[in-house]
């Protein structure tokens, strides 16, 4: 059993971590913190946890900071900018850090500071951080001390493009044209657990809208994924437009590409199946089966469907995941499994909830 | 054309008043106020009003207060406690006041102060206020200067009980046993347009709960309706339990009663039909037709279904309305129509929106 | 490991059984049947099961019937009237039967035939069937060969009334008046997985309605629970009115009672806590905490809140459960655990899904 | 007053026509037909119409066919293939026909027969039919006898592209690159009023999916709009991908284009505002205001937002409408107004319903 702490456990990724780790056979949650709810039992805030967890929120004071250093792993389910302030002390104490916010996602300091409007407090540590997408970075994660858990949209985008960019690199010829349109849709829980007029039920339900139209923080992360993680040999321009769907959980990314003649020569269904053959959490759907978000509800699986139309020169990749699981807390647990050399699926095998 | 003002136009009852009055053939909205949004066009806050209204919110400063006194009628779509501070000046200037909050609903000062936790600022005016339920108070409303627009739940409760209490009074014998259970359900818009964690989409949707379990402000208003408006000769004890339904609009009150032997002798379906025969906005559904809330969506109609089971000695009255229309803004317009001797249905004839 | 079969696996209780049993450490699902989908993989119908189950639906032909007799337990997730035709052959072969439909719920043949409009095909077996509510019938279940898994509403009603009726029996004096109002609300999945205009999304969402107003099949089951299971010494008349809530899962029963003077002398909060102290799946919420349905989503827990108002002589019991879990498939698995002397919570410990 | 008939009034476009025409000051609905509901009052099927309409459904027998020929206008709210069988007799009798299905949308017989899998029964009449998009075809509509009311998606696509294609034609130079991605999202009412497992509430809510991935009937209609109605001088290839949103009404089309250098030289915000300056139902939102579907709920308005990013060479046009109003019944009434030389906005001025 390893000893885990969750810093900032009152948000949706926080409760999802509690839910997943409480059922994990090799993890004990020994510490849970919250500035606003210090002293309160977690199951008072979330009655769904009654009988599941008897944890009490601690404040993030000196005593807690000291206790964190005794843990094996600390998850930060906090706003952007919190983890980077604690990471140095923790890693020096040999504690592994998994940040579910953005502090360790973007390798470019300039990008981080531009998009998140704050100075990075530990740029040297940032260089050692590993981007927590096991399907790309499994080896590095096994050695990592700091992991930047990916954003939800970038997870779908990068995994939806990986077999294509890799094949393009391998063949050293353009298979898709330069412009990629990622028209993405998220459930409302992605906006976090907060009091907000815009998220009020009566404002949000029976309604659909786009947001982040002029630029969303996940765009540079997607671009980094294509350029640095997948090391695309060809420039790819991404138009990323997120939308808000009146549903609690779920993310659906429709990725539109134009095939070159060379690209049309490839059987992309087969290529995706081969590329992800060994991945426990990536499910390439059979030809003609199309995904819906509920098919991954409350699960760490991400499902991909391919539609290739050579006559029109189109390739469409549809990617679904639960934004709170594979898009956040589940992926964090998967990263932890890799970091501690556990079976990667440990604690993550539960079936999706349908209906 | 009469000149109307809406004080506090940024809530859901405010926008509903703008929607209804903008289409009313005898009303011009000349003034719209909001502390928080002074200087802003209404259609910036509510883009649905683009092309419908070019009103700009005014602050509630001296100039506005003076302008209000030039209007024929002022609607208060404000929190409790605002209208009572302005009502004296307005009525002295000959302006009619319709308060959609609770300042002029309860005749008992003690009840008001107990349930709303504030001192009433114009108790003498309260005595002249008329409870704005046209189906009960039509004559008084025609002469009224101050109208307390009913709460949404009391509208369903009082109209659902009226034919029964009246018949019981008429026959001077108990027709229903003393205990009445009103198990009521409301859409989320009833909680108002506000930033609130409890009303966050991800907290509210796919979820159902009761609230106000230990006592809700609408209970004394229902009791006042039975005892004072309907002048019940028999004591009736009410258990009122409201619930929150994951839907935007709509209110459904299930009223459970036990029939006495005398009560079982009455054909309640017929009795309700007769009692409401002349009412434009009360629809007693035929025997065996049961209501759903969408059948009144965005409409001022209130529909009632009767289920009488003499074998079990049960009488169930089901009442539906749109909480923002007959339960708030529509009823206010209906009251206005009566107060200004317009056709009572003017501006209120639009069909419900289905689906 | 025991060998289990699910007859009729294409409905919502069917897929829920597959989900729960696939994760059960002592059960192997060896057979899955469906008339309509014979030959199809379950994960083609329910893509959420991809990677979870590779079962294929069998037809209910002779070969399958023979194979069923080799199982240790057979779950019937079929329409009413199917299990009673197979039960004799199975029990003769030593197979335990758990019927999630109504064939073995009502002990009274007359009631069964009146409410379900069919003749019972094995009245002698019915006498040996045990009503599958472990919190009442644990001992009998340990010996049972045929179990009638309770209806969803009766589960909430009987468990919400049990401590009261038992205390009333014990004290041999009326604690609540004779008339009980159960105003119950269910999510839409309770209506089953079917093509139906009334259940079409555009008909059902943003809408609320009552149904079964003149009489619902679960009423005689609730009455049987009070009279025969709880052996109430006093007659209790129940008004049961179910409603449809626009949510997928969840059931909320508001039970309204009037306290007698003797009843007001009891601390019902304490009484419920004591009564259910040892029950793993019954959670009596602390005083002042009120339940919502999502707090039990996808979980076998049932939560109860008590509101006692001696001044008004009222006792309100609020009960929530997931209609597909404690209200159906989860309770069936709990029954199986008892029948096979497994730990009663095996396979049923997963935390509710929130948000 | 003109005399109108609605053939096939039991679907969602049928009830929407009844709702809109019942409030139209110059129209009397004199006939309403339905094969399945002949003899039934409309307000029995749709209780929301109680007090609004006392129409009774007629069968489509000889007597009714004769009566239809006495009307001024007949709306077909029927499945594809019904209107074309009645159109000849009606137009010969001088009756104007508005078909809300697809019989008169596609000018190409081959396209019609390919996509709708039936033979067209009156190809000669098809040539005289006018595509009912008033913003493009106002003059032709004034003379039309047969109008093919546009599909919902094509309405958003064609109106979202019109100012661009027209400007491109005018300048005779490519302003956008050839490939256009239309990623569109519709509420569930677009699938019609039908019993369907796929549309069951528990299957559809809290869920999001794409459909028509390999080809949707609205694609050739969009292409016809670009090529023939807008007479694009440049070839434009369209990738059209529709999605299903868990909401009742509303359609949101995200149109993604790449700007050429010439295209980047144009101020598209200004261009759209100018292009639609005189249009009562087209609202070009101010720069930086983005649409949501509820802002047009139950209204005939269509709102457009422009996002131009010259640095990235991107132009995004977002279009929202109510799929049942501007996307169907409202547009049909607008067409009727033009055909009968009424004020184009008559009966269509109601404000959207928010919240």
TrEMBL record, chains A, B, C, D:
Molecular-function annotations in GO: N-acetyl-gamma-glutamyl-phosphate reductase activity
Pathway(s) annotated for this protein in UniProt: Amino-acid biosynthesis; L-arginine biosynthesis; N(2)-acetyl-L-ornithine from L-glutamate: step 3/4
Protein name: N-acetyl-gamma-glutamyl-phosphate reductase
Gene3D superfamilies, alphabetized: Dihydrodipicolinate Reductase, domain 2, NAD(P)-binding Rossmann-like Domain
Enzymatic reactions: N-acetyl-L-glutamate 5-semialdehyde + phosphate + NADP(+) = N-acetyl-L-glutamyl 5-phosphate + NADPH + H(+)
Residue stretches making up the Semialdehyde dehydrogenase NAD-binding domain: 3-144
Keyword Cytoplasm: yes
Role this protein plays: Catalyzes the NADPH-dependent reduction of N-acetyl-5-glutamyl phosphate to yield N-acetyl-L-glutamate 5-semialdehyde.
Top-level taxonomy: Bacteria, Pseudomonadati, Pseudomonadota, Gammaproteobacteria, Moraxellales
Domain of life assignment: Bacteria
Enzyme Commission number(s) from the entry: 1.2.1.38
Catalytic residues as annotated in Swiss-Prot or TrEMBL: 152
Main subcellular localisation: cytoplasm
Keywords assigned: Amino-acid biosynthesis, Arginine biosynthesis, Cytoplasm, NADP, Oxidoreductase
Family: Belongs to the NAGSA dehydrogenase family. Type 1 subfamily.
InterPro entries the UniProt entry points to: AGPR, AGPR_AS, AGPR_dimerisation_dom, AGPR_type-1, NAD(P)-bd_dom_sf, Semialdehyde_DH_NAD-bd
PANTHER family attached to this UniProt entry: N-ACETYL-GAMMA-GLUTAMYL-PHOSPHATE REDUCTASE, CHLOROPLASTIC-RELATED, N-ACETYL-GAMMA-GLUTAMYL-PHOSPHATE REDUCTASE, CHLOROPLASTIC-RELATED-RELATED
Pfam families according to UniProt: Semialdhyde_dh (PF01118), Semialdhyde_dhC_1 (PF22698)
Source organism of this protein record: Psychrobacter saeujeotis
Record localization: Cytoplasm
């Amino acid at each position: 059993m390893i000893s885990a702490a969750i810093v900032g456990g009152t948000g949706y990724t926080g409760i999802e971590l509690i839910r997943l780790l409480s059922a994990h056979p090799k993890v004990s949650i020994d510490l849970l913190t919250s500035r606003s709810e210090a002293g309160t039992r977690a199951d008072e805030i979330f009655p769904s946890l009654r009988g599941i967890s008897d944890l009490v929120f601690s404040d993030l004071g000196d005593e807690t900071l000291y206790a964190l250093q005794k843990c094996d792993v600390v998850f930060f389910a906090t706003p952007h900018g919190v983890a980077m302030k604690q990471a140095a002390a923790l890693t020096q104490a040999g504690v592994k850090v998994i940040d579910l916010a953005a502090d360790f996602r973007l390798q470019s300091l300039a990008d981080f500071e531009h998009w998140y409007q704050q100075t990075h407090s530990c740029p040297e540590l940032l260089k050692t951080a590993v981007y927590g997408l096991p399907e790309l970075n499994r080896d590095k994660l096994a050695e990592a001390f700091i992991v930047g858990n990916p954003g939800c949209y970038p997870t779908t985008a990068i995994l939806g493009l990986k077999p294509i960019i890799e094949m393009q690199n391998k063949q050293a010829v353009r298979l898709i044209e330069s412009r990629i349109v990622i028209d993405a849709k998220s459930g409302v829980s992605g906006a976090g657990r907060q009091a907000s007029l815009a998220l009020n039920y009566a404002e949000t339900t029976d309604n659909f809208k786009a947001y982040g139209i002029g630029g969303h923080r996940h765009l540079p992360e997607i671009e980094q994924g294509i350029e640095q993680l997948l090391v695309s040999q060809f420039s790819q321009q991404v138009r990323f437009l997120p939308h808000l769907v009146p549903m609690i959980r779920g993310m659906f990314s429709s990725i539109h590409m134009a095939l070159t003649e060379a690209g049309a020569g490839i059987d992309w269904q087969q290529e995706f199946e081969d590329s992800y053959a060994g991945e426990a959490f990536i499910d390439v759907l059979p030809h003609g089966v199309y995904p819906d978000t509920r098919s991954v509800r409350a699960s760490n699986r991400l499902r991909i469907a391919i539609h290739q139309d050579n006559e029109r020169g189109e390739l469409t990749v549809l990617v679904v995941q639960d934004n709170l699981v594979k898009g956040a807390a589940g992926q964090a647990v998967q990263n932890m499994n890799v970091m501690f050399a556990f079976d990667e699926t440990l604690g993550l095998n539960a079936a999706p909830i349908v209906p």
